[in-house]
Amino acid sequence: MSGTLTFVHSVHKLEDMSSAYVSGRVPARYERLVTKQARAARTSKSDLVARYVIEKSLETEFPGVSFRDSLSGREPYLTGHRVAVWEVLVVHEETKSADKTARHFGWPRILVKRALAYANAFPEEISRARAGETETASVTG
Amino acid sequence: MPERPKPHRLLADENTSHRFVSACRRLARDFPVIHIARWQDGSWLGLDDATLLISCAEAGLVLVAFDRATLPWHAGQVVRAGESHGGLILFRRSVRSTAYGDQARLVTEFWLREGRGWDWTNRVVYLPKSP
């Protein structure tokens, strides 16, 4: 069921920022894999590669943050947990303290700090993800 | 003699706090709620929404979470794919993330009054309930 979101997702909208060209050679089997994945995601190979480059570089820059599909697009979340970065921000806005936020989730403080660091670096993206999850009318089965 | 159906239990998703679970137990001793971090030694923490919903159905668990658009959307997708989920209780956006007492009151009152007697398969309830 995890592959049910088939529309194209983007976290960092390329049209909103200046873009640059990145290229690199990979073994043919990975090219075939990316082509297959792009077809499944109904997007172009170049868009999918761009997404992979962006997300992997962000995951390296912000350890502990990964990306997943959400109804409003790709969203950053805490690796190995079910909580999105914007959800950490919501609790932090209420507690106004990293320690209290950590206690809320039962996490070490460093996880909260990492989520907040990402939110500080990409406030518009986090705000968009939050709006997408909280302002969209719920769709129930 | 027919086998009695197993009573449902509630599983608090990770966007709720352990403090919500403790508050439920303060209001109703032995209230059947467990936090996902404690369930199965925390091995369900890494599950995506759809997998978690299906796993909850298999385990007789009703998932309690804050309303995120994606979670009920996945619940709908699970049903459309011919699978079942074990039920969802979602806190409306008016309920603050850190209002543990309010959350516990809403859930325990609803559960003890009516929710525990329901068939929760593929059911979604928002708290507070609409008047």
**Rough outline of chain B:** globular
| CATH topology (fold) name of chain B | Rossmann fold
- Structural class of chain A, by secondary structure, is mainly alpha
Largest sheet of chain B: 5 strands, parallel
Low-confidence stretches of chain A: 1-9, 137-141
Which stretches of chain B are low in confidence, meaning pLDDT under 50 for 5 or more residues running?
A: none
How large is the count of helical segments of chain A?
6
Count of the separate structural domains of chain A: 2
Let me know the average pLDDT of chain B.
Answer: 93
The spatial strand order of the largest sheet of chain B comes to 2-1-3-4-5
Specify the helix fraction band of chain B: 25-40%
SSE order of chain B in H/E notation? EHEHEHEHE
Give the helices and strands of chain A as they follow along the chain.
HHEEHHHH
Distance between the termini of chain B: 41 Å
Strand order of the largest sheet of chain A: 1-2
> Structural class per helix/strand content of chain B?
alpha/beta
Q: Please state roughly what percent of the residues of chain B sit in beta strands, choosing from under 5%, 5-15%, 15-25%, 25-35%, 35-45% or over 45%.
A: 15-25%
Alpha carbon gap, first and last residue of chain A: 15 Å
Find the biggest chain interface.
Answer: A-B, 31 and 43 residues
CATH architecture classification name of chain B? 3-Layer(aba) Sandwich
